[in-house]
Amino acid sequence: MSAIFKSVMNYSRFINSVSAARRTSPIRALTELLERSPPTMISLAGGLPNPDMFPFESASFTIKDGRSITFGLETMKRALQYSSSSGIPELVSWMKDLQTSIHNPPTLKCSPEQGQMDLCVTNGSQEGLSKVFEMLISPGDSILLDCPTYSGTLALLRPMGCKFLTVSSDQYGIIPQSLSDVLSRWSPEDAKNPDSDIPKVLYTIPNGGNPTGASITPERKVEIYQIARKYDLLIIEDDPYFFLQFEKPWAPSFLSMDVDGRVLRMDSFSKILSAGLRIGFLTGPKPLISRVILHIQASTMHASTFTQLMVFNLLQQWGQSGFLEHVDRVIDFYRKQKDAMQLSAERWLKDLVDWNVPSAGMFYWMKLKGISDSHQLITEKALQKEVLLVPGQAFMVDSSMPCPYVRAAFSLSTPEQIDQGLQRLAALIKESL
Ligand code: PMP
User: N or C: fewer beta carbons within 10 Å in the chain?
Assistant: First the structure.
């Protein structure tokens, strides 16, 4: 891809009026300046509380490999203090190195205005997702997505008053021809007309989709990226299951083919380090990441400094190779869980349900045969039989339509529980036929 000529991006085209009106907070800028200053700097500025007044003195964490992380008094003072809105510098730098070695984004060498790769730490990938939509979407805008999709994305987008343009997909993700068909009612030239209602954003979950378990093939990604170039779309690559791909080599990301700087990528540590620590990271072209950071300055201010230091210390101890070894152990676990669900599904659901085997993630997406709508079965009868599943409607753009699907997660239950759960589901389906 690197030999391909770069399109010049006009980022202001994508930013809504709220985002365009954001300005740097002078106080936040001072906090960041102080963070980078030598200890000889005397600060009578800002409103930093005095950490000597905080009650916590030290902390120590034991890692499962037997090593430990200890925060002494000075680290503790920093951990309990405000910090930079883009993330603590050492964690940002670690994550940039990770993105560079995994995705090698072509925009690394661009100038900042031309869309140079930048990155900020977020409170889970959900914060990145919400801030990106809040930067890009205005009421009445159309957004392209494949459906069914993550209910958290629908929950974000619905109140924004945007129109959903659904693109067909299958177990290999978005079907490029369908994307072209949906866009064919516009001309690529419409992207230059500010009054046109041409969509500007494509949202997708490229690996182990939630809820479908589908992963986009590399060939399709290349085609989708070309269509995005033709119609000047931004691609929102929401990829929390990237590190749960069962087979190597991992699929190339949209970020890895992003010659133009049109990809905003959300990564998450929720499935591999901790969901409750709330650490994700948003990668994309600097002009857009800067807008998100301005929003962070004015809202959450930053992800917890304590949490970031905890994660950074672990990652520094591990190094990138230790981190990837850990990811491999996590993948081994989820692969076995997936195999257990596969075995049990074949045992109990063979003639009752259609499904595809996921190549990443935590979910099976099951179509109940002969049942037009799974809602009552799952929310009432399954509850009585003590098996919890999510009815497919939760992931549909039009949730008023009947939906024969259910989502089954293999992440948390033991293989024995998975087996019993699917046995109970099979009995319920038979009763309903
Ligand atoms: N996107 C998708 C597709 C998800 O499945 C999830 C988690 N359920 C998220 C984003 C949010 O994850 P995080 O914990 O990183 O905020």
Answer: C
At 158, the amino acid letter reads R
Ligand 1 atom with minimal separation from the 275 CA = 14
Q: How far is the CA of 273 from the centre of ligand 1 (A)?
A: 13
pLDDT tens for each residue of 41-76: 988 887 889 999 999 999 999 999 999 999 999 999
What is the separation, in whole angstroms, between the first and last Cα of the chain? Answer: 52
Q: Tell me the pLDDT of the chain averaged across its residues.
A: 96
Q: Residue 2: pLDDT above 50? A: no
**Minimal-distance CA residue to ligand 1 atom 5:** 210
pTM of the model: 0.96
pLDDT tens string 224-248: 999 999 999 999 999 999 999 999 9
What stretches of 200-313 adopt beta strand conformation (E)? 201-204, 234-238, 263-268, 280-285
Q: Give the Å distance between the CA of 150 and the centre of ligand 1.
A: 8
In this structure, which residue's CA is closest to atom 7 in ligand 1? 240
Query: CA–CA separation, 70 vs 81, rounded Å?
Result: 17
At which residue do the structure tokens 């949906």 appear?
Answer: 182
1 has pLDDT over 80: no
Cis preceding linkage at 218, omega within 30: no
Buried b (16+ CB within 10 A) or exposed e, 90-122: ebbebbbebbeebbebbbeebeeebbbbbbbbb
Q: What residue owns the CA closest to ligand 1's atom 6?
A: 240
Indicate whether 365 pLDDT > 70: yes
54 beta partners: none
